[in-house]
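Hi team,

As requested, here is the filled-out complex form for the 0GY run. I kept the field names the same as last time so the parser does not choke. Let me know if anything looks off before we queue the next batch.

— J.
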Amino acid sequence: MDFQMTPGWLPFHPAPSTPRFRVPPGAVDAHCHVFGPGATFPYAPERKYTPCDASAEQLFALRDRLGFARNVVVQATCHGADNRALVDALRRAAGRARGVATVKRGVTDAELAAMHEAGVRGTRFNFVKRLVDFTPKDELLEIAQRIAPLGWHVVVYFEAADLPELWEFFTALPTTVVVDHMGRPDVRKPVDGPEFELFVKLLDQHPNIWSKVSCPERLSVSGPPALDGEQHPYRDVVPFARRIVEAFPDRVLWGTDWPHPNLKDHMPDDGLLVDFVPHIAVTPALQRKLLVDNPMRLYWPEETR
Ligand code: 0GY
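And here is what came back:
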């Protein structure tokens, strides 16, 4: 099938720089995607955007270039609940990738078992209105109850303004819950203002809730470094991510978000994104927890016992 990329969509960076920051051995890129290729794994009819193709092989080449050892591939909304591209990527990774799928109420036990065998360890609930149509919460809760016995967790994606309405649902989930991109704070607001305080409170009161401190390129208003190289990348996001890393060092994850869906203003250089890490995890001990220990505990627990 032939797919036309959504107008204005930017493809991923063709030649990311080699990061100056060297990630610790065994580091995991815990949030990235594969898209298609559409000719092999068609995009979902209900999708809100059509991406560029971004294959598993291209993802693994990036992994190696940036110095990572493993990936966590997260199902993107453009594939709906058709997890074939994800599962194919996990199989090709030969143990070096695990995945987060999207499942619907009708999923069978056999389908869940096959996904588990391929390396899926979580399911994603998306509440970002520009990306998905509404799914009733009782349906999501039912799915969470189905996947809990497999030891899977739930990944949630939402905008900061929606947290009050979603609080009760999130805190009722029976699994570990991982929040994508710090719940998308508005970084023009103060890091100690009421909106971000509510997010900090969510993690503070609920030890089963984790956060990805990823996607500075999505959250930033200041943007990437100026051409004179004086400022480090995405500096306005640093206080938010650093606060979460320092308050919850054992419940944070980081990922590139390659191939960066829905960015219309600029496409990040993935090497610079890696150079963001030492600004938010400022000691080698914090960097190791963020990039190695935490993702290994969640996605490869059998190797950490
Ligand atoms: C991300 C962010 C976005 C998209 C998706 O599944 C998706 O389509 O997650 C976004 O547009 O903010 O984490 O990939």
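Two things worth flagging: Residues 33, 76-78, 131, 157, 180, 218, 257, 261-262 surround 0GY (CB under 6 Å). DSSP finds ten helices and eight strands in the chain.

Thanks,
J.
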